[in-house]
Design goal:
34% helix, Rossmann fold, six-stranded mixed sheet, four-stranded antiparallel sheet, globular, alpha/beta
Amino acid sequence: MSAEPLISFRDADILNGEATVIYGLEMDVYPGDFVYIIGKVGTGKTSIIRTMTAENPLLKGSGCVCGYNLNGIRKRDIPFLRRRCGVVFQDFQLLMDRNVHDNLAFVLKATGWKKDAEIDKRIDQVLSDVGLTTKEHKMPHQLSGGEQQRVAIARALLNSPKVILADEPTGNLDAETADGIMSLLSRINKEEGTAVVMVTHNRSLCERYPGRVMLCKEETCTFIS
């Protein structure tokens, strides 16, 4: 295990809007970790992810994500922080007016990629990683829910992030499809060494795909395994 965590919080209060939902968060995530954040609805799980990406401010305590200090982070630095974190959402958040290739190209161009040949090569690589090499020219509505989530994971991988932040990535999927997504995330974690922080309410996933587990409960969130 590396001596330097990718993500670190010390005595951090986590906000949802103006309300504090978690007090005194202590958390370290290291390269190669697979960390689950579990708990009931409304216990602050997603708010932790939003704090990691600087969507929610960190006003008390300290936090550092992929080398960026969250305390008073400058607005111009936030896009660079987010490039180091691949974010996967429950509802996919694909652009419905363009095909898979153009969804991914949009992200690469927005993060500074210029050459079409390099963009096409990277898109081919990430689609191969998620098993969707034949779906490049499909529109999102032509894909199943599981395929759309695989595209979302491919999008998260584009800039070779050190950590994937996955917010209920299986929440809208049936059990068999969810199992396929978990297998994919687990493989990326093991083969690439990419850390994964995953919010879920499905404890059975933690048993089938073991990792470290944090439980959010009664305005706290602590490691229980």
